[in-house]
């Protein structure tokens, strides 16, 4: 069996679910547009530059989740999926996942976005294994607005992948071939340890690195 790892945002979906979620909340009047846009642009510029402080970002991004019960969040997420996510899932992304499934490969989405946002997206894509930023829960089941454990970002994706593999009694070497599909320079650590790194609609830094090292560069959007 082979291992097929996929980034989510700007890879399997033609956009960023962590950006689309606050856009949705702003439309609902839950977040202030001016305040949130200013901070979100600040963090997104850091992400694109490869300088994001993940803990500072998560404090900002997760706080709105603490305002609602889990039932309220689930209802909001259903509308968010319909209006913001389903329209940006490319046909080619579904076809690529289907090809790996048909080959009998173990598929895992490995994302720096939190599990609340990404869990339903993974299910929509037919992927059961998800490594995402985990959320701290309070005694009543509500989210605290804080992350739990190691964020699956940059080298943290390797840490979390190794934890996932260890729980299955495996290592990366347990698989004959390992693939990782990503768009971002932030994923170079994980891309560099799999046997088949693939740049998907990559940013400029990843594109240049892929071309230098002979990695495939593909598009799931065209």
From TrEMBL:
- Associated pathway: Amino-acid biosynthesis; L-histidine biosynthesis; L-histidine from 5-phospho-alpha-D-ribose 1-diphosphate: step 8/9
Q: What's in the keyword line of the UniProt record?
A: Hydrolase, Magnesium, Metal-binding
Which InterPro entries does this UniProt record tie to the protein? HAD-like_SerB, HAD-like_sf, HAD_hydro_SerB1, HAD_sf
Cross-referenced Gene3D superfamilies, in alphabetical order?
Answer: HAD superfamily/HAD-like, SG protein - dephosphorylation function
Q: What is its EC number?
A: 3.1.3.15
Give GO MF terms, alphabetically. Answer: histidinol-phosphatase activity; metal ion binding
> Origin, by domain of life?
Bacteria
Name the catalysed reactions.
Answer: L-histidinol phosphate + H2O = L-histidinol + phosphate
- Give the function comment from the record: Catalyzes the dephosphorylation of histidinol-phosphate to histidinol, the direct precursor of histidine.
- What protein family does this chain belong to? Belongs to the HAD-like hydrolase superfamily. SerB family.
Q: What is this protein called?
A: Histidinol-phosphatase
């Amino acid at each position: 069996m082979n291992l097929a790892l996929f980034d989510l945002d700007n890879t399997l979906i033609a956009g960023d679910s962590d950006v689309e979620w606050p856009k949705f909340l702003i439309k609902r009047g839950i977040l202030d547009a001016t305040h949130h846009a200013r901070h979100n642009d600040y963090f997104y510029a850091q992400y694109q530059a490869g300088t994001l402080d993940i803990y500072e970002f998560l404090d900002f991004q997760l706080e709105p989740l603490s305002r609602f019960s889990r039932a309220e969040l689930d209802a909001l997420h259903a509308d968010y999926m319909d209006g913001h996510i389903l329209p940006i899932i490319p046909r080619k992304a579904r076809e690529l996942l289907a090809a790996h499934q048909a080959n009998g490969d173990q598929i895992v989405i490995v994302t720096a976005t939190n599990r609340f946002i990404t869990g339903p997206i993974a299910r929509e894509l037919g992927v059961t294994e998800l490594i995402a930023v985990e959320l701290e829960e309070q005694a009543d089941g509500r989210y605290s607005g804080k992350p739990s454990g190691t964020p699956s970002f940059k080298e943290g994706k390797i840490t979390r992948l190794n934890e996932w593999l260890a729980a299955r009694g495996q290592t990366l070497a347990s698989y004959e071939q390992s693939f990782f599909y990503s768009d971002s320079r932030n994923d170079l650590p994980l891309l560099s340890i799999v046997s088949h790194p693939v740049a998907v609609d990559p940013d400029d830094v990843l594109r240049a690195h892929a071309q230098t090292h002979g990695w495939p560069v593909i598009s799931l959007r065209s």
